[in-house]
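User: Could you walk me through two proteins back to back? I'd like the raw sequence and the structure tokens for each, with a short line separating them so I can tell where one ends and the next begins.

Assistant: Of course. Protein one, sequence then structure:
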Amino acid sequence: MLDPSSAALLRAVNEACRGGGFVILEEEELARALPYGEGDVGKILAYLEEKRLIETRYAEGGIFCVRTVPAGRAYPERAERESREEKRSLRDHFLWSFWGSLAGGALITLLALLLEALLV
């Protein structure tokens, strides 16, 4: 999964490249998409290109010519699905732990009552 800055920048590039072709974007425009305005846009775009989520044709002087590739356009849905699955897994682990500890506590209580009845 991408860090928040990379995900926000990928989302901004996806919105700009709705037609699928290359789009010219300025650094200031992309920086507004970053959380808290932090991060080096050029480095983040290079990272996204390294991960093969975008393609850069030109990057110089604060001007970037970029487009998203199919993996980059599909990333938000995939990340959302993975997040839902992780939450579901966490919930399942919690429920199994809860019910297991409840059953264990009930079993120990019954065992203690049985031992008390036998020893009296």
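----
Protein two, same layout:
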Amino acid sequence: MAAKAIAIPYGSVLDADRHDVLGLVLSASLPLAVFIIANGMAHLIGTRPLFFAPFDVPFWAAAALHLGALPLFGVARWMVAGKGRAGRSAGWWVVGLMAGTIAFPFLVAPLDSLALSVVAMLLLVVALAAMARVAKISPRAALLMAPGLGWMGFSALMGLSFLSGWSPPFGPTNSQN
């Protein structure tokens, strides 16, 4: 009898949409957990993720910056998901962005430089669209997404600039002397 009086719905314990500290932690950690699971499955079939590291940025730093965006995207989704229909729609855009961010290093590994740059630019366009939708609901959540979009934009710009032979003003020059 006492068990029925204090019954806890166990399904709600893992609900990332709950608006308390546990929901915040779940929203931030679940995207990383999905990446770790995807990475483990990819290693089982022999695929390695590819992280673009421009200039002299070490591989581990590029991977950390790429993966560091996932908890920020998760928290931004958590901030807007409970704000009505528009918030849920913006939240699904962020989920799509997180899925693309998780899949990106695995999808581009076999691609050449041009295809890698095109995919990076497409992911950046999706990220900007998601950020615009999130900004309509919560400008603070959009600002939380900005570091991840900054890294995506920087890597996409560097990839395209390397392809075109253009050197940015702050980069090395390509003199023929």
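The helical segments are 2-5, 21-45, 59-81, 84-107, 113-137, 139-164.

Let me know if you want the two compared in more detail.
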